[in-house]
Amino acid sequence: MLLERLLIILWMQLTWVSGQQLNQSPQSLSVQEREDVSMNCTSSSTFNNLLWYKQDPGEGPVLLIALFKPGELTSNGRLSAQFGITRKDSFLNISASVPSDVGTYFCAGQHSAPQAPAACTQTCSWNSSLYAAFSS
């Protein structure tokens, strides 16, 4: 049985907003369809909220999971994310990857109440980091 291969390319883009930095890792990984995928977001400072978004080619970002409390673990279907106790890190897990998981993934840290992505100014930091693509 021939399985499609899921190729995930992660690039590091450091975003500085008022001296704040967000990093995502790993830089790259490759998994088979139906395998689990995990990515991390770390910050040089604390945030009140941490948000995970996905953006499909030619579309706007879509909120996947919002985290508001230290240590909070949240699930949304095959997705799960946790906000670190120190409010400086988070992970996003995708279980049993499928072709519709292809896209660009963002983590966003906010120092204030949640805002729409277009309204992000001095109160939040964004990091665009993950692009996934399937090939045979």
Automatic annotation (TrEMBL):
Annotated compartments: Cell membrane
Extent of the signal sequence: 1-19
Domain Ig-like: 20-123
GO cellular component: T cell receptor complex
One example of a Gene Ontology biological process annotation: adaptive immune response
Oligomeric form and interacting partners: Alpha-beta TR is a heterodimer composed of an alpha and beta chain; disulfide-linked. The alpha-beta TR is associated with the transmembrane signaling CD3 coreceptor proteins to form the TR-CD3 (TcR or TCR). The assembly of alpha-beta TR heterodimers with CD3 occurs in the endoplasmic reticulum where a single alpha-beta TR heterodimer associates with one CD3D-CD3E heterodimer, one CD3G-CD3E heterodimer and one CD247 homodimer forming a stable octameric structure. CD3D-CD3E and CD3G-CD3E heterodimers preferentially associate with TR alpha and TR beta chains, respectively.
Name this protein carries in UniProt: Ig-like domain-containing protein
